[in-house]
Design a protein that fits this description.
203 residues; alpha+beta; Ribosomal Protein S5, domain 2; Alpha-Beta Plaits; 2 domains; 33% helix
């Protein structure tokens, strides 16, 4: 089999990330076909796109999927007999494996918007616990006789939180949480995750 292509790989454009297609999950990859002159025949382009898209499922860091990326294919060549669709699909996969590590990928984690309503005497304990969970306190408000602590906390740190909050406040505090956004995982934690994944793969 023979397949040859030249492409650019990188983050998706802001316009793409703001599109309804991306926000609703219909499209994950911004694919740009800049082939001119038929250096890669039009009927082979879907195989190129399929190859890159399939590589997004397992990513390159710890096996986690890639939420978005941009691929621009701009040149290539074919063989009159050996350039089958599967050849270009496999070439796209190999090209991704070679190029993706050079794009400085980062692991992202979900960040939750958290609101805790607690009696004033427990405010310090609540904030201290959130700090241990890598939380970012964004403010406090008074609501009747209670204090409302607002902040953002990584979802990974929130398992068992309701039980811990109940313990800290003698069952007198309540909390609500909703998804806010994704943010890069701190380097030291990302390294642990990646090394653990490598260990599991090696075993």
């Amino acid at each position: 089999m023979f397949a040859d292509m030249e492409f650019e790989l990188g983050p998706a454009d802001e316009e793409f990330l703001e599109s309804d297609e991306f926000k609703t999950g219909k499209v994950k990859m911004q694919f740009v076909n800049d082939i001119v002159g038929g250096s890669i025949p039009r009927e082979l382009i879907p195989s190129v796109e399929k190859g890159f898209l399939s590589m997004m499922e397992n990513g390159i860091l710890a096996g986690y999927s890639i939420d978005s990326m941009k691929v621009r294919v701009f040149d290539g060549s074919t063989h009159p007999v050996d350039s089958k669709p599967i050849a270009f699909e496999l070439a796209a996969k190999d090209g991704f494996r070679a190029a993706a590590p050079k794009c400085k990928p980062v692991l992202l984690e979900p960040i939750m918007k958290l609101e805790v309503t607690t009696p004033e005497e427990y405010t310090g304990s609540v904030i201290g616990d959130l700090n241990k969970r890598r939380g970012l306190i964004q403010g406090q408000d008074m609501r009747n006789v209670a204090v409302v602590v607002k902040g953002e906390v990584p979802l990974a740190e929130m398992f068992g939180y309701v039980t811990q909050l109940r313990t800290l406040t003698s069952g007198r505090a309540t909390s609500s949480m909703e998804f806010s956004h994704y943010a890069p995982v701190p380097n030291n934690i990302a390294e642990e995750i990646i090394q653990k994944a490598k260990g599991e793969v090696n075993v």
